[in-house]
Write a structure and sequence with these properties.
By secondary structure, this protein is of the alpha/beta class. The protein folds into two domains: 5-111 and 271-293, Nucleotidyltransferase, domain 5 (2-Layer Sandwich), CATH 3.30.420.40; 113-268, ATPase, nucleotide binding domain (Nucleotidyltransferase, domain 5, 2-Layer Sandwich), CATH 3.30.420.40. It is built from 13 helices and nine strands. The chain has helices at residues 42-60, 79-89, 101-109, 151-169, 175-184, 188-197, 200-204, 207-212, 218-236, 251-256, 260-263, 273-283, 289-293; strands spanning 5-11, 16-22, 28-33, 67-73, 95-100, 115-120, 124-129, 135-139, 244-247. The strands form two sheets. The protein has a five-stranded mixed beta sheet, sandwiched between helices. Strand 6 and strand 7 (124-129) form a beta hairpin. The longest helix is centred in the N-terminal third of the chain and has 19 residues, at 42-60. The chain is globular and about 65 Å long. The chain starts with a strand and ends in a 6-residue tail after the last helix. The model is unreliable at 294-299 (pLDDT under 50). InterPro entries: ATPase_BadF, ATPase_NBD, Euk-type_GlcNAc_Kinase. Residues 7-254 form the ATPase BadF/BadG/BcrA/BcrD type domain. This is ATPase BadF/BadG/BcrA/BcrD type domain-containing protein.
């Protein structure tokens, strides 16, 4: 079946967005669904993506078999997971590539031009696209050992501080600690239950409540200052020459609190991870697409 359509998918720890484009007419359809990060589970990720793809194909009056698809997914840096996702979905589409959302962000952020993209979403990662077309990833190791500067890590750190107050003072005394206790539970059993079932998405979901209390709670301020130290460390690791684009839910507020030398390197994004996925999906239809799509760093 002739392929006239491309589908770009951006799957993160908080949401999934997708855009289907009919190249001949320029018409496009967009949709949004639940998180599809591979770290949340392969079955869940595949189900979310296929459901969203079917919805958009229905709206565009086309078949899945007509789509050339690029999925930029959080968690796809683990090659075995990316391969499993590819195997689970490849039979549905004309062509499919599964890659990290850091890579699709790099291509979308500056229209494929050299850039350092620092993503501050549920997790955190930096992706460098240099003048020679080389790609380098920094961070993106996941919540268990990394993701400093991301929302989930900020949520974990806030809970850690709240639990210390609970253990040493008998009850939370900071405003943010009291609020967190109201969200997780007011006793050890309830808190342990919440923690046992919590995902990175749920930890990141606590961030708005922390930020809301920045101006009036010293503990919230200290937590955010620690977050900013991690953000500056990640940006500094990208070197000194590439322009920097911040993306993700924490990008805007983090940019406002950067030190002046780092703030001077920030440029507006020309696009996002979804735009990058569409750029790469369109390249799937070109005879020379293999070089572009296999150039991703092993990291």
């Amino acid at each position: 079946m002739k392929s006239d359509y491309i589908l770009g998918v951006d799957g993160g720890g908080s949401k999934t967005t997708a855009r289907l484009v009919h190249l001949a007419s320029g018409k496009s359809w967009e949709g949004r669904a639940a998180a599809s990060s591979l770290s949340l589970g392969l079955t869940r990720s595949v189900a979310v993506i296929l459901e969203l793809a079917r919805e958009l194909a229905f709206r565009a009056d086309c078949e899945l078999e007509q789509l050339c698809v690029v999925c930029g997914l959080a968690g796809a840096g683990e090659r075995s997971l990316a391969n499993q996702a590819h195997e689970a979905m490849e039979s549905y589409f004309a062509r499919l590539e599964v890659m990290t959302d850091a890579r699709t962000s790099a291509y979308g952020a500056n229209g494929g031009e050299p850039v350092a993209v620092v993503a501050l979403g549920t997790g955190s990662v930096a992706m460098l696209l240099d003048e020679q077309g080389n790609e380098t990833m920094i961070g993106g190791w996941g919540l268990l050992v990394g993701d400093e500067g991301g929302g989930a890590r900020l949520g974990v750190n806030a809970i850690n501080a709240m639990l210390w107050e609970l253990d040493t003072l008998g009850q939370p005394e900071s405003e943010v600690g009291k609020w967190l206790c109201s969200q997780l539970g007011n006793n050890r059993s309830a808190i342990l239950y919440w923690l046992r079932h919590a995902t990175a998405t749920q930890f990141a979901g606590l961030v708005p409540g922390i930020i809301e209390r920045l101006e009036r709670c010293q503990q919230a301020k200290a937590l955010f200052e620690s977050h900013m130290q991690a953000v500056e460390r990640l940006i500094s690791a990208t070197g000194e020459h590439l322009p920097v684009v911040l993306t993700g839910g924490l990008a805007q507020i983090s940019a406002r609190h950067l030190s002046e030398p780092l703030r001077a390197r920030i440029i507006p994004a020309r696009g996002n991870s979804l735009d990058g996925a569409c750029i790469l999906a369109e390249s799937l239809m070109q005879p020379s697409s293999s070089a572009l799509l296999t150039g991703e760093s092993e990291l």
